[in-house]
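Fig. S4 source data, part A: sequence.
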Amino acid sequence: MIVAPKIRGFICTTAHPDGCAKHVAEQIAVVRKRGPIAKGPKKVLVIGASAGYGLASRIAAAFGSDAATLGVFFEKTGEADRTGTAGWYNSAAFEKEAAAAGLYARSFNGDAFSDAMKAEVIAAIKADLGQVDCVIYSLASPRRTHPKSGEVFKSALKPIARSYTNKNLNTTTGVVGEVTIQPAEGDDVAQTVAVMGGEDWEMWIDALLAENLIAPGTQTLAYSYIGPDLTWPIYKNGTIGKAKEDLERVQRELDAKLAPLGGKAWVSVNKALVTQASSAIPVVPLYISLLYMVMKADGSHEDCIEQMDRMFRERLYNDGDPQPDEAGRIRLDDWEMAPAVQQLVIDRWHQVNTENLKELADFDGYQASFLRLFGFGLEGVDYAAETDAATAVPSLA
């Protein structure tokens, strides 16, 4: 079939198999160009491995450190007349590239929150790898079914205590307007913490420890975001911020559990980027568009793969010096939060409107990055040609 982008709000309902494969190949090329990652991990489990930071983590580990990787995700397969999700095609492309490089890669498609998925992955580690020496936790889901109680939790992206009004970008029309978000109510905070907090991360590590599948010196890492003051009411100080606080609580508990093995748990605060998750958060797309303009101009812009390559190369496996902040977090948002960068972004935030959007913000870059998430807009891909929407992930075929 011939595949074109179909955008509905902040979601693209189609994905291009060849475009996704090209996007994966470009990310692999970034890592290979930078050379081997000295003392990098060799047996890596990535939970949430099909897109964004999770996919980039899997690529950086495999093609920077020759690591065997297991990837867990929840994606939809394609059919002859209907495309699968971008994450499905990303994973298919990753496995094919890994096989060509002689690297072990095995994927698992299903509910990462479930006990059944944990048991399936544990069985694979026992059979194929023996142990893992790095566990990346990068799940981004709007809901979670608790594996013990069966209760279904739904996250809410809301401020706490009072409503929040600020500028907002309609990413479909390019109109800069205003949005008001009503505050959390009822159990919104608890629901969001249950979905996006650290409980499932801890369950994964506990399950691996119980089966002696964590190698000495193993590092585990979960991803977070803080951002500038202007996004704090909807992010850092909102419901999602409470979930991230819980993630840091769990990080401290996992630190204690891994200490007897010489292991370490980390929370990494990453840069604001166009991802399927960030595009859904009000206010954030306008901030990212402004940020892209500033960081591209000063040469400090990074996408997911540059961030995760820097994570493995300069922080996690840099002779034991991840350069944590005063709270013990790894700060890969250091270039984003540089005072000169933030001052320019905030100045332009106050000035930006629909008429001067493309002068002050990289809206074209935002839209291009969004489309690339789904395999569109990649050079060298013939989008007028027929493509196979039923492309398989080899280890799941």
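Fig. S4 source data, part B ends here. The mean pLDDT is 96.
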